[in-house]
Amino acid sequence: MPMLLACAALLAGCANPRLLQRDTPEAFWSGRLALQVEDASAQSFSAGFELKGSARQGELALFTPLGGTLAVLSWQPGSAQMQADGKTRSFDSIDALVQQATGSVIPVAALFDWLAGRDTAVPGWRADLSRLADGRVQAHRSDPLPAADLRVVLER
């Protein structure tokens, strides 16, 4: 369960007024995200999060509504780790971590672009950045199935 929660957070991000330059290691977003997977079990997840760094090297922390830490994911070229429930799991890449946890690859590099206002195309995904100025990003995955909807509300 913690891996699913951590990977769900990768699908969403939040912009924060503290963001100095969106393409530097200091890039930072925070807020709330929600992921709904349209399968037979109708899985859904929501959490607070902080995302910093870049698609190449970064960290994602997921939080409960009361502020407790659910999981912390960190990655750099050639490796990725997830800390949850007092355990650390290692992977060859952030894509491998996400694949293991969710059963499909989530476009981490595109997520950073979407949060920075760049509508990067990803096969199977459609991002809606029309409300980014209001602190909202939405993305829909139609392929591969199951379909999924990601909604992000940025902290103001």
Give a description of the structure.
There is one protein chain. This protein is an alpha+beta fold and 156 residues long. Helices cover 17% and strands 40% of the residues. Strands 6-5-4-3-2-1-9-8-7 form a 9-stranded antiparallel β-sheet. A hairpin with a 5-residue loop joins strand 3 (58-63) and strand 4. Helix 1 crosses helix 2 (94-102). The chain is globular, with a radius of gyration of 14 Å. The chain starts with a helix and ends with a strand.
- Total domain count: 1
Strand % is 35-45%
Main sheet overview: 9 strands, antiparallel
Radius of gyration, in angstroms, nearest whole number: 14 Å
Give the overall pLDDT as a whole number: 81
Query: Which blocks of ≥5 consecutive residues have pLDDT under 50?
Result: 1-23
CATH superfamily: Lipoprotein localisation LolA/LolB/LppX
- Give the spatial strand order of the biggest sheet: 6-5-4-3-2-1-9-8-7
C-alpha geometry: globular
Count of helical stretches = 3
Give the strand tally: 9
Question: Which CATH class is shown?
Answer: Mainly Beta
How would you briefly describe this protein structure?
This protein has 156 residues and is an alpha+beta fold. It contains 3 helices and 9 strands; from the N terminus they run H-E-E-E-E-E-E-H-H-E-E-E.
What topology emerges from the helices and strands here?
Elements: H1 2-10, E1 28-37, E2 44-53, E3 58-63, E4 69-76, E5 79-84, E6 87-91, H2 94-102, H3 108-115, E7 125-128, E8 136-141, E9 148-154
Antiparallel strand pairs: 1-2, 1-9, 2-3, 3-4, 4-5, 5-6, 7-8, 8-9
Helix pairs in contact: 1-2
